[in-house]
Design the sequence.
């Protein structure tokens, strides 16, 4: 008995199903923390975009109030100011759609195709409106954006018509 070392107790065997459940639970909690931080950053970005929109509007009002006397010059100033305001407003709408994607992830623990398609549609429409407003469209861009928009709309329709049937274990 002198030459024998004290026996070290062996840990009980780990059930693979229990281990898998614990790892998945930890994984979901870590993802929830990451998405929550991203939502906080997105809220700050959205507030900054709205504040920037307000600043641009105040600048536009000040430029118009400064008294441009020539009508053609006034039209150019108004057109340039309007373009920036339109871009800012459309960008805020895209940020709102992205915000909704992250909050949906927290609620459903998945990125839903319907919401993702809506974000893509909002972004494509933003680009279309900006290009149309600036008269900067060529035929190849128009066809490419139209095809992409059609695919995204079809994906959204398919997501609405054929909703996901996930097992309860994933919820």
Sequence:
């Amino acid at each position: 008995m002198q030459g024998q070392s004290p026996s070290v107790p062996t840990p009980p065997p780990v059930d693979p199903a229990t281990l898998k459940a614990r790892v998945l639970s930890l994984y979901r909690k870590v993802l929830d923390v990451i998405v929550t931080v991203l939502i906080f950053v997105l809220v700050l970005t959205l507030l900054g975009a709205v504040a920037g929109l307000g600043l641009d509007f105040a600048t536009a009002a000040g430029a118009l109030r400064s008294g441009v006397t020539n009508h053609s010059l006034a039209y150019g100033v108004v057109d340039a100011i309007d373009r920036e305001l339109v871009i800012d407003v459309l960008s805020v709408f895209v940020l709102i759609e992205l915000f909704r994607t992250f909050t949906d992830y927290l609620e459903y623990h998945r990125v839903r195709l319907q919401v993702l398609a809506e974000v893509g549609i909002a972004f494509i429409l933003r680009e279309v409106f900006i290009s149309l407003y600036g008269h900067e469209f060529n035929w190849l861009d128009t066809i490419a954006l139209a095809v992409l928009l059609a695919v995204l709309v079809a994906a959204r329709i398919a997501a609405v018509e054929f909703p996901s049937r996930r097992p309860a274990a994933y919820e």
Notes: Helices lie at 16-65, 71-108, 113-134, 139-161. DSSP finds four helices and no strands in the chain.
